[in-house]
Amino acid sequence: MERPSVANWEAGRRMPDAATVYQIAEALSVDSSALLSAADDSGEAPNVLLVDDEPLIVTGGIPVLQEAMPNANVVGFTKPSQVLAFFSENPVALAFLDIELGRTSGLELCREMLRLRPRTNVIYLTAFREYAFDAWDTGACGYLLKPLETETVRAQLSRLRYPVKGLL
User: Fold this and answer.
1) Nearest Cα to 102, choosing from 69, 78, 72?
2) Among 21, 72, 78, 118, whose Cα sits 20 to 30 Å from the Cα of 64?
3) pTM above 0.85, yes or no
4) CATH superfamily placement of domain 47-157
């Protein structure tokens, strides 16, 4: 690497290309996504979704998520179609998904979301332990049993597959 390039990176005038970010991550023994998320200075609050077909779970869960992640924009949905419409128009850092969403499976919703945006973190929120093995097969990075609690949410944030700047 040439000194002028590094000086431009340090001054914020330029960013290294993807291959260079990968090499830097290798040299530092860190995941390249950690470097990229640290470089995100957009200042926008990360979007966090709460999806459950029970309106009471959504209205009760939003304040818990807001307390656990005060810098996030928390949005709740009761219908998968609403989720996909929002998801296609907005970046989403983290989604908490119920597994039983009426006629739609949260497992299938997760697969569709990750097909559209593979770097979205998904944590399942369910009342049923028996879905755990099926859940891991979808690419999700967490699994919580209801009810939502601030401390269990915070514990999951340290395990996100793709760290998100601004969640805490």
Assistant:
1) 78
2) 118
3) no
4) Response regulator (3.40.50.2300)
